[in-house]
Amino acid sequence: MIATASHYQYTRKYTGPVKAVICDWAGTTIDFGSRAPIIAFLELFKKHGVIATEAQAREPMGTEKSVHIRKMLAMPEIAEQWQTVTGAEPVEDDVQSLYEEFLPLQLASIRRCGELIPGWLNTVSELRQQGIQLGGNTGYNTEMYGQVKAVAKELGYEADVNVCATEVSKGRPYPYMAQAVMDKLGVLEVQACIKVDDTETGIEEGLNAGMWTVGVAISGNANGLSLAQWEALSTQDQESIRMKAHRQMSLSGAHYVIDSVADLPAVVDQINARLAAGQQP
């Protein structure tokens, strides 16, 4: 029987090394604890007399920011506060108005929370020595990403390419951003790509794209503490949070869960070995 093209694509196995690592930004490569979006969302709603909790603000993390606002407004407790303050239920015009107000708040908080995740520059050096390309993608729009890019560059890191959620038809958990990064990098084999993210939505994106996925548990959304707050904890408290955060990211379906991108090179080695043995994501 002659195999069709679709049959060939389905059964084809890639046994070469990892070619690309595609990382989220806030909470993954920059901004320990993914604080910048949370600060901006809480400030945005407070300006309108709505007191959101950090847990509520974190629930839609990883999505495009107007989608994030829409999801927060749909939460019963927030919708009730909004109706009490404004006298009406939240509608789509409110989403768009809030999104416009959100932009300057987000730009300011990105600058305030602009530090690379400890160990990331060493990881970048190790990966690039292996010839691995580094892509980025984000729920930020292009203007927000411009601020992130500038801050990261000042600190010594620049991604090879990046794709924002506003540059594709649908953001996470759809795979389109990750696929667009592959396209920009010129990588053919999805099996040669690793998606690294600190949110369940970002892991879903990578899984939907057919990539290897790595969840980061401590540097991002599952922990939520700034680096200073994390380092101030006792060893016992850190371990308690670590167990909870690892469990949360494991439930996302990630192939691997690590504390932060400082631990990524060892995972790349493991994935290279699995690929060489004929295993696929």
Automatic annotation (TrEMBL):
Source superkingdom: Bacteria
Assembly notes: Homodimer.
Keyword Magnesium assigned: yes
Family: Belongs to the HAD-like hydrolase superfamily. PhnX family.
Record Pfam families: Hydrolase
Catalytic activity reported: phosphonoacetaldehyde + H2O = acetaldehyde + phosphate + H(+)
Known EC number: 3.11.1.1
InterPro entries assigned: HAD-like_hydrolase_sf, HAD-like_sf, HAD-SF_hydro_IA, HAD_sf, PGP-like_dom2, Phosphonoacetald_hydro
Any Gene Ontology biological process: organic phosphonate catabolic process
Keyword terms, alphabetized: Hydrolase, Magnesium, Metal-binding, Schiff base
Chain positions recorded as Mg(2+) binding sites: D24, A26, D198
Main function: Involved in phosphonate degradation.
NCBIfam families membership: HAD-SF-IA-v3, phosphonatase
PANTHER family: PHOSPHOGLYCOLATE PHOSPHATASE, PHOSPHONOACETALDEHYDE HYDROLASE
Organism: Amphritea opalescens
Names of required cofactors: Mg(2+)
Co-factor remark: Binds 1 Mg(2+) ion per subunit.
Molecular function, one GO term: magnesium ion binding
Gene that specifies this protein: phnX
Protein name per Swiss-Prot or TrEMBL: Phosphonoacetaldehyde hydrolase
